[in-house]
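Changelog note: in this version the structure field was regenerated for every chain. One regenerated record is shown below for reference.
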Amino acid sequence: MKKRSLALLLAAVMLLTLTACGEGGSNPTTAPKTPTGADARREANEITVGIAQDLSSSLGPYQLSTAGTREVMFNVFEGLYKADQTGDFKPALATGHTVSDDGLTYTFTLREGVKFHNGAVMTAQDVIHSYNTCAATSVDSSIKKILENVTEIKEDGGKVVMTLAQPNSDFIAYVGSVYISPAAYTDQDTKPVGTGPFKFVSRTVQDNVVIERFDDYWGEKAGLSKITFKIFENATALVTALDAGAVDLVAHLSVSQVKGLSKDYQVLEGSMNLVQALYLNHEVKPLNDIRVRRALCYAVDVDAMLDLTAEGHGHKLGSSIYPSFKKYFDESLISAYPHDEAKAKELLTEAGYGGGFDLTITVPGNYTPHVDTAMVLAEQLKAVGIRATVQEVEWNTWLTDVYQGHKFEATVCGFDASTLTAGALLSRYESTSSKNMCSYKSVQFDAFMQEAASITDDARRTELYKSAAKCLSDDAVNVYLQDLADFVAIRSTLKGYEFYPIYVMDLSKVTY
């Protein structure tokens, strides 16, 4: 028995030795490394996206109060129609629609078998509930105004029928912006539920938002399994994260931020689809004087600003319409106020400010392109005696004090179109709009907008929107600058990122 036990022991030792040495006789001393960082994210089929601001306090589909929130939640929510990369509206939760001859009745055929992220199947009642809720609670005044024109919404044999008081040729564009949510669900503010290619997982305020692929999605499934939106409200921290490889994708970067990136990233260039301007508060002296506002327009050299901040990238603007709105974009307004310091000084003297005046430009410090622009403008304004000071504030402070509270003199920022319509860009300047941050009031402008909203003649509507945009230029409502170039840094191992004519970030097609 002892000899047999010894033999078994020796055999076990030999087996362990052979196993350790391997077939080639090598003797590794370390185990295979566990992937970390970017390698680990790739192995898990997930990415980290860096964003420059926290999302709105509510993530509910009708409470998306900022462009940064809307671009993230575009991956979670959907409407009956959805804009694509070309700007066309394609059927989404509806498979199609018909319009009555008088343009007042829209009948939508709903897509069958669509599931919400909580597993419920979408019905006509969910659609009706969503429209009624949006009409009553939406923070977007332009959408609420369009929905006020809906006199009846009802179910008819599984279809949804909407009746308008007046025809509106832009109605389908707004239909795409009314997100459909389950009628019986009540936790949308904190745990949003939609039908999109990604579903909400979690949120840590001022740190991150996590979404993951919705495997029961009605359309083409998303390529990535999980996305973490990491919030960097400090621009330096965002660049540091890029340098360290801690993020896989960042949009809305400046030329200076993408310079010197490692070969691990490729840089894509598109358009931000924003109206960047030096926005002016008309309730503050001397900005309530049109002569002073026009002086500011003449004092600013937009070409020099573009060269200094973006090496010439970007599209110059002359009003609150950007080039993606092709038929509404009036190229002639770009040259309405050519750089002319003498003219600026003449207007300031005429207005009683020959010695100049002090001006505070308040900007959200987390947006480098806006900060860089404000710095250049402050230097240019010195030449005509305007002593401008750039005040950087945190994003939440800017949102509450400047945008919502109107406690500012001037600011540099960019406004997007919540829907792909000219009305969405222009309506914020109507006297009654909750978005009228500048407190602009014009009877003529209001009349143009009201008529445009009430007709179906597309040629006349286009003419009216162009006239409204010219009002903003003639009244020097703001110093209109540019639609910024959008630089996107994306890890070289990723593909599928596409630019849209509206301010969204569609990550459903991004894959390794």
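Spot check on this record: Residues 2-21 form the longest helix (20 residues). Residues 1-26 have pLDDT under 50 and may be disordered.
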